[in-house]
Design goal:
2 domains; 283 residues
Length: 283
């Protein structure tokens, strides 16, 4: 936000004062605009480089330190579930919910898992580590309880809806690694009135359950920051140094998703079959 404010105002100042490279009117606008941006961008780079390198001011770190006293209280089931709610809601609108909410939560999650790691290396037991909410905690619930059940139902409905089988075959390998865009945008789940409610509901319910099971020690608190695309059962086991509960909770969440999505999926399937029959009659 700070960098954006600086950039916009520098560009506005340069254009108003005509501090730009002016090309003849015969030059195509796309090329002329590229050249006119060179001088403003040079000043933006100079300012940001001066603040970060010459002055030695790390603005993200400074903002993070200012926010930590407030955000340090965010490690609770209510705030975590709220973040899962907004993330899921944004996803159903076609926006990358994890990246958008990550602009806030990533100011403290890396610190929290680093502190968990430091505490573990100092001899603290996994159950006594300071933080429950770590960067990959959501990977034990969000996609395994939503996109994995949807993928199963896609194969189950492939006889009535033949187009779902090839899509499922394409989407399955990536879904194992929590890469869900082929399902989200291919089915689609995005802007799908039938699947919006179960998608958001399952995100929140399984997220809260996973947080609670981690807080009480059934799932080990994570102290290793593994790659986000690590398959969820493996991630739950390894990130806490060998937590069997981290494997079990993944399949509990998967089962919850299967139950919640079932009636909504059947309604979606019925609607799609009706569309196909109507198209066949028209043809």
């Amino acid at each position: 936000m700070i960098a954006g404010a600086i950039a916009i105002n520098v560009i506005d100042f340069c254009y108003k004062k005509h501090i730009v490279i002016k090309l003849p009117d015969t030059v195509p606008p796309a090329i002329a605009n590229s050249f006119s941006a060179i001088i403003p961008y040079f000043f933006i780079t100079l300012i940001c480089w001066g603040v970060r390198t010459l002055a030695g001011i790390n603005i993200p770190e400074l903002v993070g330190q200012m926010l930590l006293p407030v955000l340090g209280k965010a490690d609770n089931v209510f705030v975590y579930t709220l973040q899962q709610f907004f993330s899921a809601l944004l996803w159903t609108c076609g926006l990358h919910g994890d990246n958008i909410t990550g602009a806030v939560i990533n100011t403290f999650l890396p610190t929290w898992i680093a502190e968990n790691n430091a505490a573990f290396m100092a001899g603290t037991a996994v159950a006594d580590l300071p933080y429950v909410w770590t960067p990959n905690l959501c990977r034990l619930s969000q996609w395994v309880s939503t996109c994995w059940p949807i993928l199963v139902y896609m194969f189950m409905s492939s006889k009535k809806l033949p187009h779902l089988k090839p899509l499922g075959i394409i989407a399955a390998p990536s879904a194992i690694f929590c890469i869900v865009e082929p399902i989200m945008f291919g089915l689609p789940v995005v802007m799908n009135g039938f699947l919006l409610i179960p998608f958001v509901l399952t995100h929140c319910l399984t997220g809260a359950l996973t947080y609670w099971l981690t807080a009480i020690g059934f799932v080990g608190k994570m102290y290793l920051n593994l790659p986000w695309a690590t398959p969820s059962p493996l991630l739950g086991y390894l990130a806490a140094g060998g937590s069997v509960g981290g494997i079990i909770v993944v399949f509990i969440n998967f089962a919850i998703g299967m139950v919640i999505f079932y009636p909504f999926w059947k309604a979606y399937e019925k609607s799609e079959v009706a569309k196909m029959e109507a198209e066949a009659v028209e043809a």
